[in-house]
Amino acid sequence: MKHSRIMGAEAFGTFLLMMGGPGTAILVPAFDGKVLMVSLAFGLSLLVAAYSVGPVSGCHINPAVTIGLAISKKIDKALIPYYIVSQLVGAALGGAAILGIAKGIKTGFTVSPANFAVNGYKALSPNGYNYMSMMLVEIILTAVLVYVVLATTHPKFSQGFGGLTAGMTLALIHMISIPIDNTSVNPARSFGVAIFAGGEALNQLWAFFVFPIMGAVLGSILYKAINE
To answer: What is the domain extent for residue 80?
Structure first.
């Protein structure tokens, strides 16, 4: 029963993140300042999810965060598959919901890597950043995210502020890296749009599993070195 509650909470939380983050990026027309709006949408989505499903599952809603917490012995490693499977399912459901809504516009909507908030480098980068830039930003910023999430578990951290801290961190991360690769730091978020956009987004999807997970490992090591 406990496992089913965790999976339900993580699937719902990840679905909420998809609707708030990629949903805003896809459904809101382009305008000056949209990067800031999308960044805040991701941060607010995580904040809302943290306070709504956090008491049940801890609100990882990100395979990299789950792996980082497991490395730091904050969760039982046996729970990793339950978390990750439910996160991927929630992300896929979120992507499907966004696509269903987008198709209702009067001008029509044909999904592609160019219009479905996918992560990528070179041609898929909003500003043409290369593979190396993408790799560095995903490793570094995922490490930052995982470090902050771990910091909220410290006994001296102010109770009740974990969701706010993590949400604002995610917003900041998006402000930095949306221009580079549309910001992943979350394999589930990347998966939830790439499986519908297809093409080069699907070909590059592996990178947004590998490098955020590497960043999660780095963030866990850094947290242990500084705090423990």
So the answer is: 2-227
Regions of the chain with pLDDT less than 70: 1
**Alpha carbon distances (Å) from 199 to 88, 120, 123:** 19, 11, 12
Q: How far apart are CA 223 and CA 227, in angstroms?
A: 6
Side-chain-side CA neighbours of 227 within 13 Å: the count stands at 17
Residues in contact with 48: Cβ distance below 8 Å, sequence separation at least 6, in sequence order: 16, 20, 167
Residue 156: how many other CB atoms lie within 10 Å:
6
Which pLDDT belongs to residue 155? 85
Q: Whole-structure pTM over 0.90, yes or no? A: yes
Q: Contact, 31 vs 5, CB < 8 A?
A: no
- Looking up residue 92, the CATH number of its domain turns out to be 1.20.1080.10
Backbone φ, ψ for residue 140 (5° rounding): -65, -50
C-alpha dist (Å) from residue 96 to 30, 55, 93, 201: 21, 27, 5, 16
Taking a C-beta distance cutoff of 8 angstroms, is the pair 196, 26 a contact? no
Return the residue matching tokens 């459904």: 27
